[in-house]
Amino acid sequence: AFRYSLQAGLRSWGLFDAQTACRSLERAQEISWDHRLEVENQDRLNLLDGLGDVYANLGKRDEARSQYEEAMQLVQGQKRLSARLGLKMAITFQNQAQFDDAVLWLDRAYALLQEDMDDALCSQVYIQYGVIDVMRGNLDDALIWAQRAGGMESAQYHNLMAVIQRGRDSLGESLAHCDQAIVLAQKPNNLLDLAKAHTNRGAVLSQMNRWQEAKQAHEQALKVLSTTRDMRMYAATHCNLSDVCRHLGDLEAALRLAEESLKLAVALDLHFEEALAHLNLGEALLESGQPRQARTEHLETAQRMLDEQGITYHRPEVERGVDEHALHAPASHPGE
Asked: Phi/psi at 334 (nearest 5 deg)?
């Protein structure tokens, strides 16, 4: 029964069905506890690693970290396995915008890989350093990490370069990296990186004011995400699509998408995506003639959250939205 539940859970997770995988893997864990089974180390590692991944996907990050930490105890002395688990720990902190903790885990993973080098895994560590630097507004440092990761060409590398070049206003180069990420992600059927590439492409096209093309790119990302069920990316892409709909004049869709993203971000404790959802809700409310609600309930909240998390990404949009409140507020209603 233990082995059946374990294999069923891992199969479900391989199909991106986190809810079903969670039930099966938790059942396997309960069976091992109830019957005090002597589980082989590899099965135990697969269970802990799988549960960690599923919990992280469902926003249960404390539970995910507990599984990863227990898995680390099983693989003590095995540098590459320990580094891979350390990388996963870092990503759980990164997704909650706890960047200092994320960097500590990346440092541990990097140190382990200096003793037992794995080029592909080391490239992933470099990329995560780069992602954090992007969020903190350190584009030059992010570019250095990306260049170090570029020795192992991957969709992840090109996705990071796309974001960096967009931040540097090199939009043509950014778009080229998006297109290359799409090509590479399709070869191994890497759906999450494929979705990221499409949503990055949408963001670049938005910056080029090519709004209809941007809408198509984000919708393509959502189509891929409906298969992967990665809720964090789903929330972020909804925000991006909300912004596009607002620029296309569809305020009803813009508000609906931002509200859906906010609910999901709050439920999954996704701090950056929550701030982004508040930003998009605020901007849509400004456009719809509700400046006081836009500022007090959303734009100022987004500004506070980004400040608390040390994120400079999207700060210009937040500050512009807060400033626009004064332009929208009628003089006869000083409270707005």
From this structure: -65, -20
Name the nearest CA neighbour of 248 among 287, 303, 201, 304: 287
Rounded-to-integer distance, Cα 330 and Cα 336, Å: 8
Tokens matching residue 67: 């599984």
Give the CA radius of gyration of the chain.
21
**E strand map for 236-312:** none
Report whether 115 contacts 79 (CB < 8 A).
yes
1: tokens are 């029964």
Give 170-196 pLDDT, tens digit per residue: 999 999 999 999 999 987 668 899 999
- What CA–CA distance (Å, rounded) separates 26 from 82? 23
Are 85 and 64 contacting, i.e. CB atoms less than 8 angstroms apart?
Answer: no
The whole model's pTM is what?
0.89
| Residue 306 amino acid letter | L
Helices and strands in the chain: count of H runs, count of E runs: 18, 0
With beta carbons less than 8 A apart as the criterion, state whether 67 and 49 touch.
yes
